[in-house]
Amino acid sequence: MKQIKLINPESVSEEEVKNYRNREAARAIIFDENKLIALLHVKNENYYKLPGGGIEEGEDIFIDLDRECKEEMGCEIEILNEIGLIVEYRKIFNLKQTSHCYLAKLKGLKGKPDFTDSEKEKGFEEVWLPYSEAIKVLNESNAVSTEGSSYIVPRDLAFLEEAGKYTI
Predict the structure, then answer these.
(1) Could you tell me which residues come within 8 angstroms of residue 25 by beta carbon, excluding any fewer than 6 positions away?
(2) 93 vs 102: CA distance, rounded Å
(3) At 13, phi and psi to the nearest 5?
């Protein structure tokens, strides 16, 4: 899978990142039958993000992504294509995160998300938007947390822009 971007706002050196813990994650750009894109609105932190999350130890990336989409969007997906990967050097967490992103379509009906307590506290809600509106809300996100503003929003915006090269 090709690397789209390195996110390194704190200018972490390659030497320093060798001591960071590694985390693999999977993300999906899901579209429905009306070509609407699935996003999560993190209301209490004022930003939007793609569904997905960390890959659990020993878990297959596709099984993880399917599980995350069921939990966060309440739906099953069919993966259609690779979008790419983004590496983040998160000095604030001593973390090197590699997110793999896939283009997927909704399989079956939209269901109800099963958010964790932490996601509920952050005000997570699922939204489905046209591609241009999804780009707009990410561009206009004004995340209150460093994690949201410096890592999550730039990462997911780059994934969405890369997905624009595909016919959705």
Answers:
(1) 52, 53, 54, 55, 97, 98, 99, 100
(2) 25
(3) -80, 160
User: How many C-beta neighbours within 10 Å does residue 166 have?
Assistant: 11
Cα 4 to the center of its chain, rounded Å:
14
Strands 36-42 and 47-49: antiparallel
Question: Which two structure tokens, joined as six digits, stand for 90?
Answer: 């998160």
* CB distance 117 to 38 below 8 Å: no
Closest alpha carbon to 35 in 134, 156, 111: 134
What average pLDDT does this structure show over 25-44?
Answer: 96
- Give the domain ranges of the chain: 3-163
The answer to whether 93 and 9 have CB atoms below 8 angstroms apart is no
Q: Which fold has domain 3-163?
A: Nucleoside Triphosphate Pyrophosphohydrolase (3.90.79)
Residue 25 φ then ψ, to 5°? -140, 160
20: closest CA among 85, 83, 124, 90? Answer: 90
Distance of CA 110 to the CA centre of its chain: 19
The model scores a pTM over 0.85? yes
Q: What is the pLDDT of residues 42-64, one digit of tens each?
A: 999 999 999 999 998 888 999 99
Q: Are 14 and 86 in contact (CB under 8 A)?
A: no
Q: What are the tokens at 45?
A: 């932190």
